[in-house]
Every structure is written in C-alpha cells, then in structure tokens.
UniProtKB/TrEMBL annotation:
Pfam families, per database record: MST (PF04978)
The protein's name: DinB family protein
SUPFAM superfamilies: DinB/YfiT-like putative metalloenzymes (SSF109854)
Organism superkingdom: Bacteria
Species of the source: Actinomadura barringtoniae
Length: 174
C-alpha cells in the first residue's frame, strides 16, 4: 500500500538572489534526504532493495563525503585525512556495524553546518583555494559551480531514496 506524506515547501518563489536560492535548495534537499530515512529501522537503513546493493545508510555517508570533498577539501582547501571516506573514489560506501544511523545522521548534520559556514564567508564568484582537492588554480572551480554540483548530487540521490523508501514501506512524497 502506498502512503503519501506531504513534503515541506521549497524555498520561496520570491527569492531572486542566486546564492540564497542555492543555499535554500541545498538545505531543502539535505532535509529531504533525512526525512526519507527517518522512520526506517536500523535494519532497514542497512538493507538494500536494489540490484546495485547500496543501502540508504551508505548513501547518507556518501552525501556527507560529497560535501567534505567539494566544500571543505575542495573550496576551502582544508586538509582532510580521508576525503573519500575509508574507501577509494570508486568503491562502495560501507558503514561499520558499530556505527548507528543516529551517529551517521549527527555526522551528516555537523558536516552540513560546516559547509554552511564555508559558504557564508564567500561569494559565488570566488574560486576554490589551491592546496586541497585542487593542486593548481587552473583546476579550481568557482563556488557557484561547486554548489550547483553538490545540489545536483542531492537532487539525484533524493530521487533514488524516493524509490527505495517506496519499495521498503510504501511511503512516497516525504
């Protein structure tokens, strides 16, 4: 049985500032990801219902590291010990059994907060700092490009979670 849950509103249609729109939509999608996971059991967030085998908890870890790689290590050039997590860039996102959904969720929220701090102190036209992800200025994209890239990651993966949640328990639209 399909059960539809009402989604919160998108950022206001009156917004015209591109930075405010990007910030608003990133927060909207961060929240959407968490809404799609909240209410699932610890077992469900660790269970795959897809042929590819990824789990909802692995996807949350992936999104956390997307922000770390692009905003902390990428834009701010912070030294990050494991920008890809404890796997390489082409490997699955495995979550240790002793790490709970609540702990992963808290890490995700802390990462999002650090991303907001980085973005708040910059302009969309600013280029990523050299020395982190980008070894030369020629390779460094603008903050606007990075934010659009992160936003499309969230939008795409939120859609994946829509399907996973419906397959797991019939909930749609949250």
């Amino acid at each position: 049985m399909v059960k539809e849950v009402e989604s919160p509103p998108e950022p206001p249609g009156s917004l015209t500032d591109p930075g405010e729109l990007l910030d608003g939509y990133l927060d909207f999608y961060r929240d959407a990801v968490l809404r799609k996971l909240d209410g699932l059991t610890e077992e469900q967030v660790r269970t795959s219902v897809l042929p590819s085998g990824w789990t909802p908890l692995e996807l949350l870890v992936h999104l956390r590291y997307v922000e770390i790689r692009w905003l902390r290590w990428g834009f701010a050039a912070e030294q990050v010990s494991e920008p890809w997590g404890d796997q390489g860039p082409d490997e699955r996102w495995h979550v240790p059994e002793n790490l709970t959904y609540a702990e992963v969720r808290a890490e995700f929220l802390a990462t999002a907060e650090r991303s907001r701090e980085i973005v708040a102190g910059a302009r969309l036209g600013d280029m990523a700092a050299v020395g982190g992800r980008f070894p030369t200025a020629d390779e460094a994209p603008s903050l606007a490009w990075i934010l659009f890239h992160v936003l499309q990651e969230y939008a795409r993966h939120t859609g994946h979670l829509d399907v996973v949640r419906e397959l797991m328990d019939g909930i749609i639209g949250e």
